[in-house]
């Protein structure tokens, strides 16, 4: 088993006033040659957007983009005529493919928005752009991993599909639990990002916003030291 340990305070930081962001991997002005992604996972940004502020219209191409609100609501518009609000409990996916433009905005006058944005490199280039979002029953992730994103050709339950052999799961666990996370493909790796709490994986103890990347392991044992919320991203490593 190979591991890469990323403490929360070692992430890249950006403070634009209206936006505060932490970058798990190189992004924009944060460039770290040792953090260019994990397998096909290229970006994991932890963003906080101030009230009445947001990302203006900008383009993307040939990337699978996933947004997961943690607090607040984010208003979305794109060149495919989608105009939706993304709220806590929902997950949004966009296949940028041949190209699209979109904007994300915090319409609240009082509340910040905190959301995760993940970019996963697609297995097929220049697909037709697509957009989908869905609300998931969070009760189903109590002491269990709920798959919210899976490959287009292998949809797990009511997960959203993307153009890559990748899976994103969320779980909320009680203190004292031990979970054996079985990968869908033993050649893949998983990036465990701790949203809240404290867990132990192998010889490492993770606290809130710490992460660990694991490869060459078909199953990974996770010990829940305190009540915890966990994001797991399983991706091909090449």
UniProtKB/TrEMBL annotation:
Residues 148-235 form the Quercetin 2,3-dioxygenase C-terminal cupin domain. InterPro entries: Pirin (IPR012093), Pirin_N_dom (IPR003829), Quercetinase_C (IPR041602), RmlC-like_jellyroll (IPR014710), RmlC_Cupin_sf (IPR011051). It comes from the Bacteria. Residues 11-120 form the Pirin N-terminal domain. It holds the Pfam family Pirin_C_2. Signal peptide: none annotated. CDD domains: cupin_Yhhw_N (cd02910). Belongs to the pirin family. This is Pirin family protein.
């Amino acid at each position: 088993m190979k591991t890469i340990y990323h403490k929360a305070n070692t992430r890249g930081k950006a403070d634009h006033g209206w936006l505060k962001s932490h970058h798990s991997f190189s992004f924009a002005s944060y460039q770290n040659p040792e953090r260019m992604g994990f397998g096909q996972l290229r970006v994991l940004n932890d963003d906080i957007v101030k009230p009445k502020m947001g990302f203006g219209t900008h383009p993307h191409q040939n990337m699978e983009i996933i947004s997961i609100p943690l607090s607040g609501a984010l208003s979305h518009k794109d060149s495919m005529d989608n105009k939706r609000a993304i709220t806590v409990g929902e997950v949004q996916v966009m296949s940028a493919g041949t190209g699209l433009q979109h904007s994300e905005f915090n319409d609240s006058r009082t509340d910040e928005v905190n959301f995760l944005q993940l970019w996963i490199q697609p297995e097929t280039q220049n697909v037709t752009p697509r957009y989908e979002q869905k609300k998931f029953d969070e009760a189903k992730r109590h002491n269990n991993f709920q798959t919210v994103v899976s490959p287009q050709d292998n949809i797990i339950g009511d997960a959203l599909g993307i153009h890559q052999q990748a899976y994103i799961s969320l779980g909320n666990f009680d203190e004292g639990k031990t979970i054996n996370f079985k990968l869908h493909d033993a050649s893949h790796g998983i990036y465990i990002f701790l949203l809240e709490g404290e867990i132990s994986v192998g010889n490492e103890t993770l606290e809130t916003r710490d992460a660990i990347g694991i490869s060459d392991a078909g199953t990974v044992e996770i010990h829940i030291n305190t009540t915890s919320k966990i994001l797991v991203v399983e991706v091909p490593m090449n």
